[in-house]
Amino acid sequence: MKLIPWAALLSLSTVHAATVYQQQSADYSVIHSQLPPLPTTSPELVRYDGEKVIEACINNTVDMQNTLDWIESNGWDLWKHPSTDNCLHVRLNQHNQGIFLQNLPASAEHRVFISNIQSLIDQQQKISAASVGNDTTADYHAHYHTYDEIITFLKNISDTYPDLVQLFSIGKTYEGRDIWGITIKSKKARKPTKLWTKITDYFQSSFNGKKKKEMELIMHGGQHAREWISVATITYFIDTLCSKYGQDKHITKLVDTFSWTLIPVMNVDGYIFTHTRDRMWRKNRQPTSFPFCTGIDLNRNWGYEWNRGGSSPNPCSEAYMGPAAFAAVETKLMADFVASRQHAMMYIDFHSYSQLWMSPFGSDCNERPKDEEDLTELSLGATRALKAVHGTSFAAGPVCKIIYQASGGSLDWTYAVANVKYSFAAELRDVGQYGFLLPENQIVPSGEETLAAVLFAAQFINEREN
């Protein structure tokens, strides 16, 4: 297995800082936890003093690929892959900033996108310290939340809407934590009771061979630990769908039509680690063959066209694909869960950042889905609905076309193997001003605009498939 040079390893600010403490426990006091007691002293937080995010725009395809390979070989943290703008973002410590700039192709244009990563982290932590986070009011969405607070939120939602919500776990992570989610399903969605509904179904079946079918929509956030806005967006969906059911006609109709399954955090261990130790952690917390490099990139570990390209065999890489498909506990759990849902019509994997609405395929840039027309029509409509809320523009298209080749991704597997026709991944706000450190005052706007896209998608599916 290819490993990065020791010299490069020493330059890895994330890895060398984070792994010093990887054997110590964080705050693991969640429901059904079977982990050992917490240590009596708190571990030191990883800091990013003096580190910057630099944007490099390179129009030449060969130069861009050489630059990406060079970044990978040095173990640097690539925040944003080049998309339609031909620009990448990379996080660099003070030592590596000069090396990077000196070795860019002559044609490259560059600028500093984030001048001090640690200052943004400090601001976010200071504001978040004021969060109580245990209610289901609008104030809840003014802050990012720990996993314990999210569990409390889900339990409160379940208790508040017992006839609408079912709380469940898809299984336990590598470190033994439950991955909690909820299904929002009205009594009408469970079993049609009105006479006219039964009559309509009868005539549809008799005259055109079609009968309204049970349909489920599956969405989750937090496959990559540091992408907090994806988690907050899912909790916003949950709160809004439940609180507006019976009040908003459009939402009520769609909740009556579909089962809505929402899982805020897929990568629970990694997400907790971003709160307790290292805000910039991306992967899960599963040990690898290299003792200094922990974690598998969950979104390179799914079983369709695994190891086809756009991932790394290097355990120290942020894009480490794992030793085998579904070697990561959390990826296998989510895949098994999706495969078990016989009526799943849509799957959306939420990420950040870049403002993209993506469809299959990512593993092969020459492969086209058989449902390309429907996927494209839905994607374009969803991004229009999203933009209508706050003016935020999203690009839409297949993963491999609008960003990069990425094999072992979730939406390729859910589409090609689990046969979920409408499989997508969405990269939420922003386009790089804050990157993964999106301010808390953008949680609600992000939730509002993204929910508009999701509601459009649900309506589209209902009309197209029923």
From TrEMBL:
InterPro entries: M14A-like_propep, M14A_act_pep, Peptidase_M14. GO terms for molecular function: metallocarboxypeptidase activity; zinc ion binding. The keyword GTP-binding does not apply. Keywords: Carboxypeptidase, Disulfide bond, Hydrolase, Metal-binding, Metalloprotease, Protease, Secreted, Signal, Virulence, Zinc, Zymogen. Residues 143-461 form the Peptidase M14 domain. Its cofactor is Zn(2+). SMART domains: Zn_pept (SM00631). The active site is at E427. Its main location: secreted. GO terms for cellular component: extracellular space. It comes from the Eukaryota. One of its GO terms (biological process) is proteolysis. Extracellular metalloprotease that contributes to pathogenicity. This is Carboxypeptidase M14A. It comes from Umbelopsis vinacea.
